[in-house]
Structures are given as structure tokens and as C-alpha cells.
Amino acid sequence: MLNILKAGFFNTVQDFGRAHYKHFGVSLTGALDKPAMTIANQLVGNLNSAAVIEVSLGPLEMAFNDHRKVALTGADFNATLDNRPVYPGWMFHVKPSQKLRLTHAKLGARAYIAIEGGIQVKAIMQSMATDLNSGIGGHHGRSLQQGDSLSLGQQHQAEPLNKPPVAVILPKIDKRIRIIAGPNFTNLTAQSQQALIEQTWQVTPSSNRMGLRLEGQALQFKESLEMYSHGVIPGTIQLPPSGLPIVLLADAQTTGGYPRVAQVIQADIHKLAQLRAGDKFTLQLINIDKANKANAKLKAYLNQIETGLAPKTRQIK
Questions:
Q1: Segment 239-296, tens digit of pLDDT
Q2: Mapped to the 3 state alphabet, what secondary structure does 156-222 carry?
Q3: Fewer CB atoms inside 10 Å of the end CB: C or N, the chain?
Q4: What are the start-end ranges of the H helices in 247-287?
Q5: What is the C-alpha to C-alpha distance for residues 202 and 270, in angstroms, rounded to an integer?
Q6: What is the per-residue pLDDT for 161?
Q7: Which residues contact 43 (CB under 8 A, 6 or more apart)?
Q8: Exposed (0-12), middle (13-18) or buried (19+): which is 143, by Cβ within 10 Å?
């Protein structure tokens, strides 16, 4: 059992989300930074898909009731275990009554806490992910609050408590986001096509898990576009009448009516999760071949970590 002693806003239980229900209008949800979630689970020996806690706004403080392996990944939230620093990318052992505390992010926007055995909540549509918009999944369909208690899955094979911690080198936060052209990219004026990829965009405070709203030089189409609603996915870059792009994230709707000027490549969607209000970044237009190579490179990186950790922490699938 895990007891929540303090909780800021928007700290939720997440997994890989509800990928197979979009045709019913169900949002994907799930961890915004899936590689960070995956690595956290690998560090404690869980399956990659095990539910974790996504931390978006501290403070978050929790107490453990038994011996567990715990790992932090993603943003550095100045975490401490009984007032001793613990760092992203590390697996460490906790004992009964010890307290893990996260305060605020020094760099990045979201951290992930994986606990040996995984968070155990009721699965809805094959996922434990919290959908804040629909109020389903996770812990009662909402953010974690002070006084909440979360069940944990079964512990793995016992290990000596004095076993050294295990760590991996996490990728640096990169503010260059690669995109491919969307269906309506060529509808932009030549000047706006250049502006999309040459200017620096800034994340606005109105951004959330549904999407990032951007501030910069407004983009324009060659002529007015009237469109039927169409499917959208995380990473779709929409252009509303204001001319200021919206980059959709995991909690976004499944259909939309705004033109789609670009699509963030799969390998870079996790980078969006680590952008917070005020952050600046650039977009780089690449082709499909380079996008596929980038996706394969990320997958190989995660597989390499899993293979390297297997003798130390992992349950063999």
C-alpha cells in the first residue's frame, strides 16, 4: 500500500493509455512521456506497461508500507527519501514508513514514479490510465489527493536490501521537435511554411494534457479553408483561425475540424511532455524516411536499456 501525504494538482496514475478505443471517441490518455515511464518500469523490474504515477505539479509526498524498489525518471523534481536526495534515472530501495517527497521541477515538466509491482487500480477499457476530462480510470478518475491510498502489485523475487542502487543515463531534454508535413501544410502561404519551421515557438500558460498552445508569429493560409471533422492523434499540429498552432497531446479529442499543418514524429512526442509554460522550442521539418529511422533509434535505445537491466532487475516477459 502507498499512502499519499501531500499532493499538488494534476498528479495522476498513468500507463500506456487506451489505444484501441479511438473509434468510440475515447481519448488515448496515458503517460505523456512514455519512454520515461518505460525506463522507470524497467529499473524496478516491472513490465513496461505497468501503471506509474505521473507528477506534473508538486509537492507530492508519499509513505510506503513495505519494502519496495522505486525509480524516478523524467524531470528532476528535487526528490528526497527521508530528506536524502534521490535522482532521476536511479532505482533505490525503500523501507516501511519511509517518505518520498517531490517539490518542483528544476528542468522539464513531468516526472514518473515506478514502484515495484506497479500501481494497482481498476482497469477501464484495458487501461488504468486517468482520463481527467471523462473522470474515468486511475484513482477515482481524478488527480491524487492528500489521504489517498493506492494498492501495489506483488513484489518480485526478494533481493538483499544492501544491494547497490541501479541507474541509467537518461536522454537530455531536447527542445528541437521534428515534424513531417501534414495534409494542409501546402495550404499555408510560402512565408508561413517557412515561419512554421524557422521561428522559435513559446508554450503558453493555457496548455495542458490535451495540448500545447503556442505563441509566435501567426500563420496564414493561401485562402480560407472549410473542412469536415477528421481524425487526429497525439502530435497533430492544428491551426485554428487565430493562426497560432495547437499541438495535441494524449488527452486530446479523437476528431477535430481545424486544418492539420504538421505531425510531430512518434520519436519526439515524449519531448512535448517536458515543455512547460514559457518554454521555447523549434520545429524541424523532416521526411518520412528520417522519421522512421528516428523511431527505430528510440526503440533500439529502450530495448538496449531493457537488455542491460535484465540480469539485475527485470522480469523476463
A1: 999 999 999 999 999 999 999 999 999 999 999 999 999 999 999 999 999 999 999 9
A2: CCCCCCCCCCEECCCCCCCCEEEEEECCCHHHECHHHHHHHHHCCEEECCCCECCEEEEECCCCCEC
A3: C
A4: 269-272
A5: 17
A6: 58
A7: 69, 71, 73, 89, 90, 91, 114, 166, 167, 168, 309, 313
A8: buried
**Alpha-carbon separation of residue 195 from 4, 36, 242, 253 (angstroms):** 46, 31, 15, 27
Dihedral sign computed on CA atoms, order 164, 299, 267, 120: negative
Residue-level pLDDT at 173:
81
CB 32 within 8 A of CB 274: no
Are the C-beta atoms of 247 and 237 separated by less than 8 Å? yes
Q: Which three cell numbers stand for residue 67?
A: 519494502
Which amino acid belongs to residue 145? Answer: Q
The answer to whether 124 and 102 are in contact (CB under 8 A) is no
- Of the candidates 151, 133, 117, which has an alpha carbon nearest to the alpha carbon of residue 47? 117
Amino acid 21 reads Y
* Contacts with 105 (C-beta within 8 Å, 6 or more apart), sequence order: 58, 75, 76, 77, 111, 276
Q: Is the pTM of this model over 0.90?
A: yes
By three-state DSSP, how is residue 102 classified? strand
Dihedrals phi, psi of 190, to nearest 5 degrees: -60, -40
Q: Note whether 204 and 240 are within 8 A (CB).
A: no
Q: Is 210 exposed, middle or buried (0-12, 13-18, 19+ CB in 10 A)?
A: middle
**Which residues of the chain are modeled with pLDDT < 50?**
315-317
190 Cβ contact list (under 8 Å, min separation 6): none
What pLDDT score was predicted for residue 317? Answer: 40
